[in-house]
Structures are given as C-alpha cells and as structure tokens.
Write a structure and sequence with these properties.
By secondary structure, the chain is of the alpha+beta class. The chain has one domain (28-116). 36% of the residues lie in helices and 32% in strands. The chain is built from four helices and five strands. The chain has helices at residues 3-25, 38-44, 52-60, 85-88, and strands at 29-37, 65-69, 74-77, 95-105, 108-116. It has a five-stranded mixed beta barrel with strand order 1-2-3-5-4. A hairpin with a 2-residue loop joins β4 (95-105) and β5.
Length: 118
C-alpha cells in the first residue's frame, strides 16, 4: 500500500509536467517582419518591394503565406486553423507585426493562430 501514494504522486507530477510543456508551446509572441509569398521565396528568393505585386497575387490565390522576422527566421503563417491569406495579401512585401503561437517541428517554423497587430 505504501507504493500506491508514490505511484499517484508520480502520475500527478507527470501530468503537471506535460501540461506545463503544452502551455509553453502555446505561448504567444509577436513577430515583426516582411510578409512573404513562400512559393516564390523558397523557389528563387523573391522578396521585397520589387516582388510585392506578384507576392500579393500568389498569396491571394492560396499559395502559402509567411513572415520573415527581423531575426531572419521564416514562419509559415496560419490563422486559427485556417488560412489567413486574404488578410495578409495586401501587406505582401511590407513589414508588419503579427501576434501568434510559434511552433517548430523538424525544421519547419509555424506561427499559428496569427493575428495582425494594428
């Protein structure tokens, strides 16, 4: 019977540790940087004002949208489990600030639940 309280304590501490990790991965942050059309950016490095018109068309058509932060890190940007393309297309090639939850897995960076900070 002495092992039961110890077992319960271990289970409880594991659950608490798991919930803390989940909370840390859901932390919100802000990223200031250029709105990118990720297809052209990944294919041939297209960015900036020269590419803004093309990027706006690509983002509007549903190609992946991203943001390149001031630190050089690039994120795929999504809203609350849905595309945010129509909201960000007018800002293609421009610097904006987004608020969201950063997630990284296997070399892919995602800014989830993103919102434009106005």
């Amino acid at each position: 019977m002495k092992k039961l309280p110890l077992f319960i304590a271990l289970i409880a501490s594991s659950a608490l540790a798991g919930s803390l990790s989940a909370a840390e991965s859901k932390a919100e942050t802000t990223v200031k940087g250029e709105v990118l059309d990720l297809a052209c950016y990944a294919d041939h490095g297209a960015s900036g004002e020269k590419h803004a018109k093309c990027a706006g068309k690509c983002i509007s058509s549903g190609l992946p949208v991203g943001i390149k932060g001031e630190d050089g890190k690039v994120y795929i940007v999504i809203g609350d489990h849905k595309p945010i393309n129509s909201e960000l297309a007018p800002y293609a090639g421009k610097v904006v600030t987004l608020k969201g939850s950063p997630v990284s897995k296997d070399g892919v960076n995602l800014l989830a639940n993103a919102e434009l900070v106005k």
